Amino acid sequence: MAKIKHNNFLDTVNEVFTDAKQEGVMHLYAQGDDFSGRTIGINNRKLFHFGTTGYLGLEQDPRLKAAAINAISKYGTQFPLSKSYISNPLYKALEEKVTEMYQNPIIITKNSTLGHMGVIPNAVSDQDAIILDHQVHWSVQSAAKVLKNRSVPIDMIRHNDLNMLEDKIRSLSDKQQRIWYMADGIYSMYGDFAPLKDLKSLCLKYPQLHLYIDDVHGMSWIGKNGTGYALSQLDELSENILLFGTLSKTFGASGAVLVCSNKKMYHEIKTFGGPLTFSAQLEPASVAAATASAQIHLTPEIYEIQNDLRERIEYFNNLLEDTDLPLIDKNNSPVFFIGTGMPRTGYNFVSRLMKEGFYVNLGIFPAVPVKNTGVRITISRHNEKSEIEDLVAAMVYHYPKALEDTHTNIQRVCKAFKLEVKSVVEDKEQAEVIVKIEDSILKIDKTLWNNHVGKHGVYDWEGLKFLEQTFRNNELKEHNWTFHYVIIYDSGHKPIIATFLTVGLWKDDMLAKVSASKTIEEERKTNPYYLTSKVLSIGSLFTEGNHLFIDEEHPLKQQALHALMQSVESLEQRFKAEMVVLRDFSEKDSLHPYFQGQGFVRVQMPNSCKIHLEVNETIEEFITKLSSRNRRHLRKEILEYEPLLKIEVMKACNKEQLKQIQELYAQVHQNNLGLNTFSFPEKLFLNMSEHPNWEFITISSQDKPTQIIGVMLCYNNENHTYVPAFVGMDYQYLREFYTYRQLLYQTIKRGIELKFKHIDLGMTASFEKRKLGALVEEKYAYIQTSDNYTMELLGVLE
Length: 798
Known about the structure:
- By secondary structure, the protein is of the alpha+beta class.
- It has four domains: 31-55 and 303-416, Aspartate Aminotransferase, domain 1, CATH 3.90.1150.10; 62-293, Aspartate Aminotransferase, domain 2 (3-Layer(aba) Sandwich); 429-606 and 785-797, Aminopeptidase, CATH 3.40.630.30; 609-777, 3-Layer(aba) Sandwich (Aminopeptidase).
- The strands form five sheets. Strands 14, 15, 16, 17, 18, 19, 20 and 28 form an eight-stranded mixed β-sheet that branches. The protein has a seven-stranded mixed β-sheet with strand order 3-9-8-7-6-4-5, with helices on both faces.
- 49% of the residues are buried.
């Protein structure tokens, strides 16, 4: 099995956040000697604050402040004991008042994250299963993953997709005791709601279904006694529902609250709830402030405050209706999201609004898909109507300028969010370059292509002609690709950019950890296209290398890049691709900032391995350049076995040989879950045998010369590159003859014999290739998806 260096998701997040930080729109520090909630100090300026989650403004209520100050004076800054031993004297009053609010048993937790970590492993038994909404808060997902250690099945549905949820309930109902669906009451980015009434009906239909609702963004500003959106929809809390609320955010204090009507479960969680038992309890000031807030929630005043906020929300909604600003989800929550599409546009728009005197949040990956970046605006009681009106006016003025600054338009934004396009704007920049897109290499000049793109790999003109013939008109849909050649010229018909793209079906777990692929492949035994997506990719799954030619010195390079991005988007929409992949770039590639600003996230691919040969170099001269340690390895594990083997270069194969070669390739493919792809069509091997540029390096034992135990499938690129594209091996003989290492050596030997300048050894097994003199380079891909569902599901399965 190939050793693959898998991408670290946290590295990807870090890159995106670092980019936003450098643009001055994230990881900021508030300034000032005091804080009113209406304004916030940033970079020596006071900005109107449209980014708070304290929607009712209770964190500035003098009653909460006085209670907190008094508690510190009486009890100190903390009460350093676990609640399992003894709670501080103020806890009892808080628990009584919050219980009165909900009319159900409650448990106070330090915060919602620790609360989930304490509750979920207790509430979910080993006989249960979990289904996550893919947009449920990270803290819920993280706590649920802990149960993988107990072999509790964890699955995921697309956001608010109840048909998908019902299908998964049916599939689990005969195997699991209870099925937990975990979701947010209100989602923090778009402000959209969980369909709680429909979920309640689903619970009646499937008694096994239990709901776990995180309603921290629905708290206080709605519902009886401010108990939140979820309870306002459910009316009552049945025993199959666990509800999380918050004592921070809109509640104005600190901490979180679990509400549980199931007395048995309540007792089990309260008795021993992991972090609930061992973590420090809330500080006296927080408990006192929360108690003061609960008191307000238990009086008619809470409804006056809610109505006050509701007026501001309605006012903002009405103002937005008279604009062309792309509001992603219109509702009555205090959370609004204006889509910008590309991150670079989001940075620009936020910066412009800050200079205009308004602070808003940037909504960015991983909270939203990268190409669904936008500005998250929250309305609170701190905001005066005049300030809300001024914010809308500023957005109307600056939004088109942010689009223009970042070379995009409203059509692209609306398409990214699947919104109706209200207006069409002419792209003046693209008029400066000429874009040509063809669907076959036969329509591209051979010399032009080979001089600019086809210098390496199996993607010179002849190689692409071969691939087109092989990956068309096949029985299985994964074996049929469409090819698209994009060449962008200046007015003098000089190429500025040239590349090719394919559209095909990929396995979503292609670069996932082996553990995830094993789980997914079990499902694919009965559902072969489970977790697969139509992908638009630079290059193809058959090719590796630098697929993108760019004239770096051309004065219209930037305009050509913008034209390329729009061409890619056009192809994506035309073929309904669910993912776009720009691949095979180096870590220090100059295009990194551009691609990231265009809504792509960078992920690490398997390392690329190449050998560069001297003119007229012999195999003996090549060996002398290896380190002494690697020469010993060569003598002991390769040269010593060479006399025992029959090594042959075949230009064409008979039917029996092709059958053996195909079976050997299949063995490697099946054992290589580290790079999990679909197999190739059967006609590939016959096409190779009949094509003058392909040859097979085969290995057999001298004892059984007709039985091939290893094969390297090699392509002769006319631009002086030898390409061992794929390998096949009989794993029964792998250790006996060191088959893979022998094949690598024979490939290098053959490349030298044919006087090639380069040998492209491809991806994977870089450790083995390095020992034979290969230069190993880290490679990266830039990925853009329509949503984060697949990525998050793979995270759950790994």
